[in-house]
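Re: that chain you flagged

S.,

Sorry for the slow reply, it's been a week of failed gels. I finally had a moment to sit down with the sequence you sent. For the record, here it is as I used it:
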Amino acid sequence: VQLQASGGGMVQTGGSLRLSCAASGRTFATMGWFRRAPGKEREFVSAIRWSAGNTFYTDSVRGRFTISRDNAKGTVYLQMNSLSPEDTAVYYCAAHGSRVITSMLKNPNGYDYWGQGTQVTVSS
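Prediction finished late last night. Pasting the structure tokens below so you have them in one place:
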């Protein structure tokens, strides 16, 4: 089982990036994105329930980021628009084989599988 994250890079303030996380080896009921900024703890960014397509966002990214999935490719995406330096972090995708209850979606312990991080750097 593997989660392969990609799409990070360096952009200027106001720019956009799209992160991808390709899952292999099994299907997942819930997938999400977390990030860790320098000197800070890992924080929840967004999640999606695979079958229903329900999406969840942390307040700081709602309206700027969009999570989506491609069933055929087994891939989840995070479209990030209007990026700011505060979005600079290593972004990690995460997944769980079962439906994660809403109260656990923002908790890293709610996920069983993690991909490697992808660096997002936003310059001012």
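What I noticed first: The CA atoms of residues 67 and 78 lie 5 Å apart.

Talk soon,
D.
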